[in-house]
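Action item from last meeting closed. Structure (310 res):
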């Protein structure tokens, strides 16, 4: 439940997902939508029209999202970000779904985009690395204020969420060692705030599709930031141990090197960047998708990283 800002009355936060998809399809003139995929925050439907062909409808599960270490954000803002980034990247030749419309229905906002098909061969990790290097070389869109920044510059945003997540994890895991204070984390990350590049920050199998082992679609830009590419590669490396992510980090880095030098940062800075990803995963498996075994493994990893900073 959440509270209506005008009336103060408690209203459901959950979206009537199928109703939202049906309403958006009717407004755009599509056939009845059918489920095509789902994730933690969004459900994707497939529909068709004579004018638009086959399209995807991205429907939020909630009206408002709130995570440990983050400021709450609305589903509409997340879809606006997806629309803006894909509209920027599609003409540049990157494999993203061309956005067609952001439809406000009585049930929820819905993003309508071209439907990208896959032959399910799986993208080769070298190709994923090359795509990331290409992404990091394109100019970021003007005017974007990424949700994950929480209104702060890149270095402050990363330091704040590592520190805040660590404090939250410490409440449920009392034996966690201390981290350096927030000002010290910001100081370590400050050099990374120069010349920010566009980062996807959720590279894993569920957000990629392929055709003949080439990446033909990169989805879900909700974690995107404007920052240093080293964070992207640190996040990918920390995603790699989870088998469902299908991240093979060494050939991914080899593919990256074919397009651009792999970014190098001070080892302590790299540790903070890795902590950003590991603390996020720890919170996910502690709160949003509870998994005691994975939570334990990830907390061990956080302890190892924290020890490298002390």
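Sequence:
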């Amino acid at each position: 439940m959440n509270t209506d800002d005008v009336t103060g009355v408690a209203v459901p936060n959950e979206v009537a997902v199928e109703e939202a998809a049906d309403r958006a399809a009717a407004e755009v003139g599509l056939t009845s939508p059918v489920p095509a995929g789902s994730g933690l925050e969004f459900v994707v439907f497939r529909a068709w029209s004579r004018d638009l062909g086959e399209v995807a409808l991205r429907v939020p599960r909630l009206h408002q999202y709130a995570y440990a270490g983050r400021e709450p954000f609305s589903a509409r803002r997340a879809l606006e970000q997806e629309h803006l980034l894909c509209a920027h990247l599609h003409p540049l030749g990157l494999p993203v779904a061309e956005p067609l419309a952001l439809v406000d229905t009585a049930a929820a906002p819905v993003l309508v985009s071209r439907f990208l098909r896959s032959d399910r061969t799986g993208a080769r990790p070298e190709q994923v690395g090359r795509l990331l290097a290409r992404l990091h070389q394109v100019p970021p869109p003007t005017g974007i204020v990424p949700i994950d920044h929480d209104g702060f510059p890149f270095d402050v945003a990363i330091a704040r969420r590592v520190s805040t997540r660590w404090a939250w994890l410490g409440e449920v895991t009392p034996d966690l060692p201390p981290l350096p204070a927030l000002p010290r984390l910001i100081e370590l990350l400050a050099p990374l705030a120069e010349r920010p590049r566009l980062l996807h920050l959720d590279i894993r199998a569920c957000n990629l599709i392929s055709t003949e082992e080439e990446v033909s679609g990169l989805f879900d830009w909700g974690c995107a930031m404007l920052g240093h590419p080293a964070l992207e590669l640190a996040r990918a490396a920390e995603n790699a141990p989870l088998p469902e992510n299908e991240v093979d980090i060494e050939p991914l880095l080899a593919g990256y090197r074919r397009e651009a030098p792999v970014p190098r940062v001070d080892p302590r800075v790299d540790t903070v960047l890795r902590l950003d990803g590991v603390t996020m995963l720890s919170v996910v498996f502690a709160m949003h998708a509870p998994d005691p075994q994975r939570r334990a493994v990830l907390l061990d990893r956080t302890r190892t990283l924290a020890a490298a900073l002390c």
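Note appended to the action item: The chain has two domains: 2-114, 125-309.
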